[in-house]
Amino acid sequence: MRRRTQGREHRPVPEKITDLAARVADGQIRLPKFQRGFVWSRQQVLDLLDSIARNYPIGSFLLWNSDSAGLASDQNIAGLEVDPAEEAEETAYLLDGGQRLSTICGALHWLPRGDPDSYWNLVYDLEQERFLHRHDLGDPPEHQLPLRVLPEVPEFIERIAGLPQPLRDRAQQLYARFDKYEVSVVTLQGTSLSEIGRIFERVNTRGTPLTTVEIVRAATWTTDFDLLAEIDRLRGMLAGRHYGRIDAKLLLRTISAAAGQGFTTEGIERLAQMPLPDLRQAIEQTEAAARRAVDFLTTEIGTPTAEALPYLNQLAVVIEIFRQVPRPTSAQHVEIRGWFWRTMLSGYFDGWNTQQMAADIDAIKAFARGTRRVEVTAAPLSTRLWTAVPYRRGTARTKALALMLAAAGPRDLRTGNRIGVGASLAMVNEMQFHHFFPKKWLMAQGTSVEDANVLANIVLLTAISNQAVADQSPSAYLADEMAFCSEGEMTRRLETSLISPRAFEAAMNNDYQAFIAARAETLLAWAETLGRGDWTADAADTGDPEIVRHGATVEVVDNITDD
Fold first, then answer.
1. Are residues 332 and 426 in the same domain?
2. Contact at 8 Å (CB) between 267 and 256?
3. Is the distance from CB of 34 to CB of 69 less than 8 angstroms?
4. Rounded to two decimals, what is the model's pTM?
5. Which residues are CB-neighbours of 1 under 8 A, at least 6 positions away?
6. I want to staple 471 with a disulfide (CB 3.0 to 4.6 A). Which of 382, 397, 440, 476 is the partner?
7. Is the CB of residue 78 less than 8 Å from the CB of residue 16?
8. Tens of pLDDT along 290-315?
9. SS3 111
10. Domain range spanning residue 511?
């Protein structure tokens, strides 16, 4: 069945470039705020004007006639003030061609006051036959024709009257080129705001794609409300908690969820139709929930910054949980911790789709009503997560391993001191991660790079210890350290890195495959412990007595010293 176009043929129509520029200056065509600001260089301005003077094509333009009269639009083009639009049933918005039309408008409608270095202080040098920028507000020489006189016929005639005939001919030719220059204009009619976003992204191949945030910002803008400013305010608050580097769309997802529209892009776009008081309320609720969510992540999970999170989208769900359950009971805290680890380690957010988003909203609502768990359909964990997945800096799986290792409160193999994992997690610092069986040593034994680089072979070490280990075999560097401490002490240190006595024994035998198998089992047991929510980040930061983890168990040790 053919889709109804409702008369939207979108046929191109020729229009004079000077008429389009006049409509911008008069406020009849508006530049929506989701357009980029004016970013062209001065040379690009001169090149466009030269193209018109030579009658070269400069491309088509795309307008959108809409009844969205309140759509945010710019009243300033690189310092040139344009008239506010008059009240009308429909408003024309420029979707494609903003830099080009801004240039023509600025060149023809600037007045010599204010900034002498304005982009629009332009002349055409009739002797050199080229466009120039001037840098003073004085009257230019007779052979330099100010472009602002081209739309003003009487002033233009008066300006060129005393010129020699060859220069007067050139001036008249320039006037004719600008006055008669036509471009193709397509005007969209009866097109929704969300569809405009998709159209803009496809036609604006030379510029930055239009984002959902920019669309909704433009649709909800008023003189006393700017959605982007509100999002920036939220990010500023989170920055004080080291969570400032968060994508604006993620925060918009949380606002949409707080407004009852869900996490999806379609839900976000529905914010454009919401009453402003309701939108403000959703933002306030998001702010309060985000504070609680970040406090939870830093104190009970141990993520020092947003960058430490393997999946930023997970933060949106955490915020919504704390919006709907602002004061969790102790049992609810246990479940939220368990949910976090289960969904993170299973890769639930690898491809967070609309179906999952809807299911997550339903699960949070049920949890807020009193169900014991935040129910999600997460893949079961297996040792393959660490034996078959490579270590790559900055990837979600590597970050997840880093959080697991940090949760175990690792101690340095050489000194026994607690490793400061905050910096490691915040930057996923390459120097803090070490292959327990050094890669070069493994490759010398015939192990492939891929097999040597699996996650089960990764531990956290201080940079100094990392350098000391170098490319020695495990049995060699561990024996060197045990010359200064007992085997029992080394066992305890290794267990804080989730290396069991069985894995320790395999390392002393330089048996890589046995080590990987044993360590993967320990990692799995620890992951299952975390997934039950039985652990908090505070446990890793207690002083004496020290807390040391043996596989999936926790043992309290009064003093850890060398035997």
1. no
2. yes
3. no
4. 0.70
5. none
6. 440
7. no
8. 999 999 999 999 888 898 899 999 99
9. coil
10. 384-557
